[in-house]
Amino acid sequence: MSYANMALVYDNLMKDAPYDKWVEYVKQQALFFNKSNEQISLVDVGCGTGELAVRLKKDGFHVSGTDLSETMLTIARRKAENLSLTFPLFQQDMTELQVDEKVDMITIFCDSINYLPTKEAVIQTFHSCYAALKNGGLLLLDAHSPYKIDLFLENEPFYEIDEEVTYIWSCSEGENTLEVTHDLTFFLLNPDTNEYQRFDEWHRQKTYQVNEWKGFLQSAGFKILSVTADFTDEPPHEASERIFFCVQK
Length: 249
Description:
Elements: H1 4-13, H2 19-30, E1 41-45, H3 51-58, E2 62-67, H4 70-82, E3 89-91, E4 103-108, H5 119-132, E5 133-144, H6 146-155, E6 158-160, E7 165-173, E8 179-190, E9 195-206, H7 210-219, E10 223-229, E11 242-248
Parallel strand pairs: 1-2, 1-4, 2-3, 4-5
Antiparallel strand pairs: 5-11, 6-7, 7-8, 8-9, 10-11
């Protein structure tokens, strides 16, 4: 599983992602602290190219970001600089999250948690997040539902043809239950040669039933405050695609 090439086209792939809805979800949960955004410290784990972190910074949060991919972080730094924003970015594995000072909030969005290969890695991540939070701090995360995994398999392949980037995205059932493998082939235009360069990526995502996620979180010491679906205040149902967890240390 590599993210070096993916980073070059990530923002193109995510151009329709609901970043504004993630920001609103964070702002809604942040009301819990009864203080201004500027007084709230937040780490965006799995921050990718920094799109969400940039938006949260613009809304006043005291933001930092972590990601496994240095290439993703390089793009995030450039993006922040272009907007005259400054915030720390660190290359870290989310299972070993470390902070200099404990924070009020941690976010793990855009199904980043689904990239962890085992439940042991998930639980270790939750323990790391618990240790990084202040007492009373919040962890906010989302995860693919089992229904969403089925949708990947039913609706594949996906593709997009664009002048600068063309991709073919196929999905197959993973070796384990509630697991999907993504095989992506990209053709990226080189503006210097006016030729397309091909590269391939392979990714695996795994999810769990809602009660299993809750059990993992509780085993790390978290108190479950809310479990909702698809950017609503409603609990998950059989056709929910994205499950949100708000939990407290």
